Amino acid sequence: MKKSALFATAIACVGLLITGCQKNSSSGTKNQDKITVVQNATVDSLDPILAYQNTSSTVVANTTEGLYTIDAHDKPQLALASKVKTSNHGLTKTFTIRKNANWSNGDPVTANDFVFAWRRLSDPKIASAFNFQPGAAGIKNANDIVAGKKPVKSLGVKATGPKTLVVQLDHVVPYMNKLLAFSDFAPVNQKYFQKTGKKFAQDSSHLIYSGPYQIKDWKLGDNTIQLVKNPKYWDAKNVKIKNVKLDIITDPEKAAIAFENGSADYVHLSGQLVSKYRKDKNFVNDVGNFTQYIMFNLKKTGLDNADLRKAISCSINRKEITTHILKDGSIPSHSMVMKDLVKNPTTGKDFADESTTNLYEYSPAQAKKYWNKAKKATNLRSFTLLYDDSDPSYANVAAYIKAQVEKHLPGMKVTLQQVAKKTRTDKMSKATYDATLTRWGPDYADPTAILSMYQSKNDSNYGRWANSEFDKLMAQSDQTTDQAKRYKLLLKANNILIDSASCPPLYQIGAPVLERSNIKDLPMHIAGVPFFFKYASIK
Fold first, then answer.
1. CA–CA dist 364, 362 (Å, integer)
2. How many CB atoms are closer than 10 A to CB 435?
3. Are 397 and 321 in contact (CB under 8 A)?
4. First CA to last CA across the chain, in angstroms?
5. How buried is residue 141: exposed, middle or buried, by Cβ count under 10 Å (0-12/13-18/19+)?
6. Contacts by 120-128 with C-beta closer than 8 Å and gap 24+?
7. Torsion angles phi and psi, residue 248, rounded to 5
8. How far apart (Å, rounded) are the C-alpha atoms in residues 451 and 467?
9. Burial of residue 224, with CB atoms counted within 10 A of its CB: 0-12 exposed, 13-18 middle, 19 or more buried
10. Is residue 398 within 8 Å of 363, Cβ to Cβ?
11. Helix (H, G, I), strand (E, B) or coil at 47
12. Contact in structure between 149 and 78 (CB atoms under 8 Å)
């Protein structure tokens, strides 16, 4: 979903620094109350509907809890809601807000806090990067509101009492509880918001909190965010770690050094460092929560030719990229949906393993075949591959793609263009690019978190691809309550998208880390908010 290019923010350097550690890489923290988390992205906003970077969503989710949270086992749990009642054939959800749920200023958390917040999220005038999510959750009229066809007040949420929130749906969404755990569905105290005005969320003195933590001595632009346990949180007794410090460290080597000298206990490693630490007993290798793609602009003459796009895709050896360039545990991707996100409800097989794979296998022979067909249909013999400067590996990957395409498609020239990340995303939104390296991470654990962005009317369809059969399958999946049938519909939609080669996947990023064994229950979630500190502890 919109985490892409959208909800699209890199977790290139995530680490957990613990205060009070001994000065060697095998030591663990002796202070069970304090941890420090290192990320490479600064906070862009702590207004729940404007928070875009992963650092921001992590802070919002841990300080401004919503109806649901995600536990250490990746399961959604009721949070500010004590119970939910489903009626009207699944199209009405009635949430009861906990009696002891209060804001840090003493105000009770009310149903209206959610109504006010979700209307802001859907308001097209505010243009939140995640304004598509109420529609993804199936909330009545959400899509029409975002499109400007209906007023914000028609959103299917209402407060029927101080602690009773009624949510009306256009259709049943089986993953709704997972989606509502995301940070943009957090409540906002309307009275406090209106009182603070433009100062809201600009610093810690203009924020109040409904979650397990509150923020101390922070202002927008700071590279350190100090979270302290919120004593007015409804479940404060079960919050074990009292202080969480987030520091921004953009250099992976400095993070690794922090681990070695005992001031870090959970550090994300770059590919260049994996070989150095692979045999360390603290080394853990796993797949991460982003997939890297090449997105083509189908509004560009020539790139609208499917054979040309397939020729480019078949000319790229994904295994060579992951093994010889990245070296960080990244794995070649053959599905639009990443591994470990969704399982077949009947067989338990991974969605990514069941999708069409042959199109994205490296094959110079197939590349030549598609290229010969494309040359008869288009005169395009050059294109520019755009990439940004947010990750040093992108330049090497882009250079490799250029070399492979020019080698296997004789007569095709690739020009490389590096820009700032914001410039890249602006060019994508305005369709002023040829092809670009972009990545996408899921906001919730369902295939639609990825596939929905390719629907013809989706604002996130930056490649301008359109396919009526794909749109039909996606619409049918929205109306289907049979999970096995729904899975097959989405798998078929995934394969149609793969066959179009409109946005060929390259690799799913690796997530190699150095992690102390005494840190418990702090997994990095593959979908949505990366970390929920409430469940963590230090043994």
1. 7
2. 24
3. yes
4. 36
5. buried
6. 120/49, 120/188, 121/48, 121/49, 121/184, 121/185, 122/146, 122/152, 122/155, 123/152, 124/148, 126/49, 128/49, 128/50, 128/184
7. -95, 115
8. 12
9. exposed
10. no
11. coil
12. no
Q: What pLDDT is attached to residue 471?
A: 96
User: Which is higher by pLDDT, 516 or 121?
Assistant: 121
Residue the block writes with tokens 């923020």: 215
Task: Give the model's confidence band at 514: pLDDT under 50 very low, under 70 low, under 90 confident, else very high.
Answer: confident
Angle 483-500/468-479 helices, nearest 10 degrees? 160
Q: String of b and e for 156-181 (b: at least 16 CB within 10 Å)?
A: bbebeeebebbbbbbebbbbbbbbbb
225 pLDDT exceeds 80?
yes
Spatial contact of 417 and 386, defined as CB atoms under 8 Å apart: yes
| Measured distance CA(363)–CA(397) in Å, rounded | 18
205: left (phi over 0), alpha (psi -120 to 50) or beta: alpha
Beta bridge partners of 138: none
Lowest-pLDDT range, 15-24, 70-79, 114-123, 498-507?
Answer: 15-24
For the chain, counts of helices (H) and of strands (E): 17, 22
Single-letter residue type at 381? R
Q: According to the model, what pLDDT value does residue 31 have?
A: 60
